[in-house]
């Protein structure tokens, strides 16, 4: 018999193998990464799951309805997780950096871009 503690990396892998969306949003526009980093589990487990989600295409820079990224929500005592997350975020894609810059500079883009690109920018 197996006993799992949560969060569980095996469960995350199973869900992703079954087609779960790594950037699915809850009612507050939190992604799985937002929810994960708020967990006070052992930092090693959180780091493993961050890796799994990132390797499956999760965006580290999505903002929730309060404008917070997952990094903003990591408890200060999770220093290892904060450092690891900062290292991971350092390799963001150019499209994510551009989307964040458009948001930061309050550029008007709604009438110029497709719905897909508008949604992408709004997540950053």
Please describe the topology of this protein.
Layout: H1 9-17, H2 32-37, H3 43-55, H4 70-73, H5 79-89, H6 94-104, H7 115-122
Helix pairs in contact: 3-5
**Do you know the CATH architecture of the largest domain?**
Alpha Horseshoe
Number of strands: 0
| SS class | mainly alpha
Helix content: 40-55%
What does this structure look like?
With 124 residues, the protein is mainly α. It folds into 2 domains: 1-92, Alpha Horseshoe (Serine Threonine Protein Phosphatase 5, Tetratricopeptide repeat); 93-124. It has 7 helices and no strands. The protein has helices at residues 9-17, 32-37, 43-55, 70-73, 79-89, 94-104, 115-122.
Nutshell version of this structure?
With 124 residues, the chain is an all-alpha fold. Helices cover 50% and strands 0% of the residues.
What attributes does this structure have?
124 residues, Serine Threonine Protein Phosphatase 5, Tetratricopeptide repeat, 50% helix, mainly alpha, 2 domains
């Amino acid at each position: 018999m197996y006993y799992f503690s949560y969060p569980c990396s095996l469960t995350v892998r199973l869900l992703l193998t079954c087609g779960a969306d790594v950037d699915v949003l809850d009612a507050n526009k939190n992604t799985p990464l937002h929810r994960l980093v708020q967990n006070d589990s052992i930092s090693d487990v959180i780091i493993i799951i961050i890796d799994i989600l990132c390797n499956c295409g999760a965006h580290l820079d999505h903002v929730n309805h309060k404008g917070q990224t997952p990094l903003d929500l990591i408890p200060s005592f999770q220093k290892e997780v904060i450092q690891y997350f900062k290292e991971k975020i350092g390799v963001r894609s150019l499209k994510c950096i551009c989307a964040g810059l458009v948001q930061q500079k309050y550029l008007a883009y709604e009438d110029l871009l497709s719905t897909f690109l508008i949604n992408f920018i709004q997540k950053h």
